[in-house]
Amino acid sequence: SVTAPEPTGARVRLRAEIAALPPYRQGRPAPADGFKLSSNENPFDPLPSVQAAIAAAATEVNRYPDATALRLRERLAERFGVSPDEVIVGAGSVSLLAQFILAAAGPGDEVVYAWRSFEAYPGLVTVSGATSVQVPNRADHGHDLDAMADAITDRTRAVIVCSPNNPTGVAVTADEFERFMARVPSDVLVLLDEAYAEFVRDEASVDGSTLIGRYPNLVVLRTFSKAYGLAGVRIGYAIGPVEILDAARATAIPLGVTGVATAGALAALEADAEVELLRRVDALAEQRTRFRAALLEQGWAVPDAQGNFVWLPTGERTAAVADRLFDAGFVTRAFPPDGIRISVGEAESVDTLLRVLEELVEPSQ
Ligand code: PMP
């Protein structure tokens, strides 16, 4: 018989850069009677028809899903005027981001993105083995696309553009984006992350759905987590050239998209359901606009907000302000030493939040 070796005290050798990587942060749970405004979630309960579709799909979970989600891809393809092969579905758009980065970049390669931007990007790039090149946002907290184009080198394999940008809220304009694309070499993958697209109300903003088919190197990513209120089942999608999507299908962890998730997404796209969901999005976008206007009035230098969240540039006071908000019952997302992101959630949270924030404002913030 084989005996296990004596423990030598030697540690398993892990990749040093992975061992050093902080895990993805989730917001703290909301205190009793408080509000969780830290994850840009949709505050509305799932529609009854969506819950029913998910419950029905749950009766089949003894079987593996059709993880290619063909029916959902067909639905989305119809909507965006492409073929189902030009649509990929993933376990949240964060999973798709990982797949595309793995498909394009590895050790020795570079991935360019703005900073601050979505917290997951640095980790995903590190996991791929590639190097992050972070380009500071402009003073107005929007992407500096000129500087991002300047940052592209022979080693660049992908550029991520986040519009509206999480966590600062500013969207890239269509003009800016097209000028940028004209400067990006066509063999460099551009990932346009539009997780918050449905909340955009500034008509000058880029809308990736109008650019599909225009560039051989452009992939547009969207999600059911935010506007469609399905964050808990994990489903997102991307649209782009088949060859790039095939590479991302190859880097996927097999069977990551569940039948429960695709059933929820299909139900959310049913005509009546979608009308209701987009009505909620309208209400949230309006609430965001009012919330930002009230904050500006108080003296906060809140940048333009096109997602379902606003950005408070609290600087060195970030942790202190976030703690005060937490004590008042509001879980927010602090990014010291830059600022605090506050999701636009339950309508009844706004007045109290504004009362608390009025006492915390300081000139120049
Ligand atoms: N992109 C951005 C900019 C995001 O903010 C998020 C969610 N916080 C995602 C992608 C991922 O969303 P999901 O994986 O839930 O689709």
UniProtKB/TrEMBL annotation:
The modification N6-(pyridoxal phosphate)lysine is found at K226. Residues 33-356 form the Aminotransferase class I/classII large domain. The keyword Transferase applies. Its EC number is 2.6.1.57. One of its GO terms (biological process) is L-histidine biosynthetic process. SUPFAM superfamilies: PLP-dependent transferases (SSF53383). Keywords: Aminotransferase, Pyridoxal phosphate, Transferase. It is an enzyme of class 2 (transferase). The keyword Ribonucleoprotein does not apply. InterPro entries: Aminotrans_II_pyridoxalP_BS, Aminotransferase_I/II_large, ArAT, HisP_aminotrans, HistidinolP_aminotransfase, PyrdxlP-dep_Trfase, PyrdxlP-dep_Trfase_major, PyrdxlP-dep_Trfase_small. Its cofactor is pyridoxal 5'-phosphate. It catalyses: an aromatic L-alpha-amino acid + 2-oxoglutarate = an aromatic oxo-acid + L-glutamate. GO terms for molecular function: aromatic-amino-acid transaminase activity; histidinol-phosphate transaminase activity; pyridoxal phosphate binding. HAMAP family: HisC_aminotrans_2, Phe_aminotrans_2. Aminotransferase that catalyzes the conversion of aromatic amino acids and 2-oxoglutarate into corresponding aromatic oxo acids and L-glutamate. Homodimer. Belongs to the class-II pyridoxal-phosphate-dependent aminotransferase family. PANTHER family: HISTIDINOL-PHOSPHATE AMINOTRANSFERASE, HISTIDINOL-PHOSPHATE AMINOTRANSFERASE 2. This is Aromatic amino acid aminotransferase. The gene is pat.
